[in-house]
Amino acid sequence: MSVGVLIVDDSATMRGLIAAALKRDPDIEVLGFANDPIEAREQVKRLNPDVITLDIEMPHMNGLEFLEKIMRLRPTPVVMISTLTQAGADITVAALELGAVECIGKPQGGAGVGEAFAKLPDIVKGAARARVKPYSGPVAAPAERASGYSPVKDLVLAIGSSTGGVEALMTILANFPDTCPPTVITQHMPATFTKSFAARLDRISGAKVEEAYDGAKLLPGHIYVAPGGDTHLEVVSSTQPICRLRAGEPVNGHRPSVDVLFDSVAKLNRPAAGVILTGMGRDGAQGLLALRQKGARTLGQDESSCVVYGMPKAAFELGAVEKQIGLARMGQAILNVCSASAEHQRSA
User: Per DSSP, what are the bridge partners of residue 184?
Assistant: First the structure.
């Protein structure tokens, strides 16, 4: 069964380039084109596409405004394709928070079209399988967080996520207190976006959230997000665990890779917990299994709350997941398994 796509972009040249990239895949059908959101609205009603590719800068209404209307009124998988997804990282994170499945950048100056759009057919087919939900408003910091929380001494928490992970991580970390365990996160995201994403998380979380850097000490109340790009995030330790950014080939098609992060935490001689969230593929499944085999507590997001039940499913089928949890309850469940309280440990 083919995936029907509507291409929304005010540039005729770019519409043609996107269409050419998608038409290389026999499982994708380009249903139509729209020059701006007003035209796109009529095309969505008429064509009922499986996936929409959407530019950000367009006449009459920008792509973010149109995306919000789509996600509120007619939730549809959307892939943002714009030069602003490279230069305007804050806009990219806003698009993902609104419910865009993925964001990729246009080639600059017409160069590198093949490389820029090489993964677009796979991204679109993956987006067609996504479970998108109506947008219910931005994630905000809670009015107050539980006081007196204390994690297991020396515990390291590792979290991995991909498609749909922006919303999931924002939901979870908004409830983390400033006494949370040292936390490391690998979210599949291009290099341009991770610093802005960490800053967004920092504004809503009780913990200090920042992009990981080589040599950063893992401290209670601190959360480190793996930078996208050319390195994997690992945690290494003699006595004090630190972040290590290591160059290397992609693992499971990703760099940074969740498996690499989980494997490094499994090698630490200290308590640990691992969490795998929504995402396509299998990255993180083997690493989470290694963590569980070393005695770590492990949680996986359940199918009904995932945008894509790929990574958590692969981990669950391997026996790596101790318990599956819905997104609404995941934040508290993570804090429970990391808690120094024996009662919390038993009830999680």
Answer: 158, 224
